[in-house]
Amino acid sequence: MIMNSYGDMAQHLFLRNRSVGLKNDISTLTQELSSGKTSQLTQKLGGDLTYLSDVERNLDRLKSFQVANTEAALFASSMQNNIELISDNVVKLTGDIFSVTTSPNDETSQQLSKQAEVYLTEAIRSLNGEVAGRSLFSGKDTEAQPLADINTLMSALVTEVTPFTTAPDIVQAVKDWFADPLGFDTVMYQGAPDLMDPVRIGPTEEVTVSLKANDDAFKQTLQSLAIATLVNDPGLSLTSDVKFEMLRSTGVELRESQVQLIQMQSDLGFVEGRIEETATRNGAAQTSLSLVFNELVQADPYETSTRLDEAQFQLESLFTVTARTSQLSLMRFLS
After folding, report:
1. Residue 134: band (very low, low, confident or very high) from pLDDT cuts 50, 70, 90
2. Per-residue buried b or exposed e for 10-44, using 16+ beta carbons within 10 Å of the residue's own CB
3. How far apart are CA 115 and CA 117, in angstroms?
4. What is the pLDDT of residue 3?
5. What distance in Å separates the CA atoms of residue 140 and residue 158, rounded to the nearest whole number?
6. 303 φ, ψ to 5°?
7. Could you tell me which residue ranges the Flagellin C-terminal domain spans (predicted)?
8. For position 75, which CATH number holds?
9. How many domains does the chain have?
10. Residue 309: inside a domain
11. How far is it, in rounded angstroms, from Cα 46 to Cα 246?
12. Could you tell me which of 144, 116, 115, 151 has the C-alpha nearest to residue 129?
């Protein structure tokens, strides 16, 4: 019978290496148990990580779409709020103008004109609105403030209408100035000529959330409010009849503005609906892919726990053997 014997040093190295190996196993298994993820991913997937990589890539895409979706929704809702403020003021002023059934007088005209000036100021402020440091209505150039102030607008209009004394001529002069490329678009509008690029919010969906302060609906509204504001300008010296006629003309123009603003809000609401629907679909897809990803990378908790108990038992047994071995000596053997 052949007997194999090992020297003390060899035995010591064997026991130490075995101890280190078991401690590493326990550390790995403990991490798997706490994180729920396997440390032997390649082995579990049979060496093919292609499917897992595809799942991870799609999850990353959906996360980027989530960010874009959130930004687009914030931009659209902020636009909607600012347009709603302008629209509400238009409705109020229109109602106040047509509620005046008495004979024209300077006091009534002055009150309505001051009211129009307040609403014009608020309209310009709304169109100069920002969200997260980006202008809402400046088109592609979101760093630019789209409109100059009300003083710039009214100074230009007063100069334009000074030669005229009748309401139709003054109203027409204002309309011509707003329609002239060298008028409103040059003097007042400071944003980009182009709309913002479409935003990709899903794997196959994209939306354009972009309006400009010189869009026809906004220009129509500003034009109407500006005509009413001119009624109270001291430099024009208008008669009571002319003032009243200008306000009546403003009321008619504001009714058209209401229709255009409502249509704009409706179009924007459709975009908001698409953003919300896409966000819901993206969320469902992300949840589904997350479940698949977890299934691929997770460790079996029962198997991991069993292996951990086994490794701990082996380490304890090894410590016992090591302790007994260290107590052996020739004197004890001979005694």
Report:
1. very high
2. eeeeebeeeeeebeebbebbeebeeeeebeeeeee
3. 5
4. 46
5. 31
6. -65, -40
7. 260-334
8. 1.20.1330.10
9. 1
10. no
11. 82
12. 144
1: pLDDT strictly greater than 80: no
The answer on pLDDT for 15 being more than 60 is: no
Three-state SS at 137: coil
For residue 175, what are its two tokens? 């309309």
DSSP 168: H
Question: What is the pLDDT, as a whole number, of residue 28?
Answer: 58
| Cα distance between residue 7 and residue 5, in whole Å | 7
Q: Give me 88's structure tokens.
A: 């509400």
User: Per-residue pLDDT for 263 more than 60?
Assistant: yes
Percent helix, percent strand, percent coil in the chain, to nearest 5:
70, 5, 25
Q: Which helix (H) or strand (E) holds 150?
A: helix 150-161
Cα→Cα distances 5→2, 12, 19, 133, 187, Å: 10, 13, 21, 80, 101
Domain range for residue 89?
52-290
Any domain includes 319: no
Q: Give 236's pLDDT tier (boundaries 50, 70, 90).
A: confident
- Decide: 65 and 203 in contact? Cβ < 8 Å: yes
What long-range pairs does 178-181 form, CB within 8 A, spacing at least 24?
178/219, 178/222, 178/223
Domain assignment present for residue 6? The answer is no
In a domain, 317, yes or no: no
CB 247 within 8 Å of CB 97: yes
Whether the CA torsion 59, 60, 64, 65 is positive or negative: it is negative
Is the pLDDT confidence value at 62 over 50? yes
Question: What average pLDDT does range 192-198 have in this prediction?
Answer: 92
* 277-317 pLDDT, tens digit each: 999 998 898 888 877 766 666 655 546 556 655 656 565 56
Tokens describing residue 145: 């403030």
Q: Which residues contact 300 (CB under 8 A, 6 or more apart)?
A: none
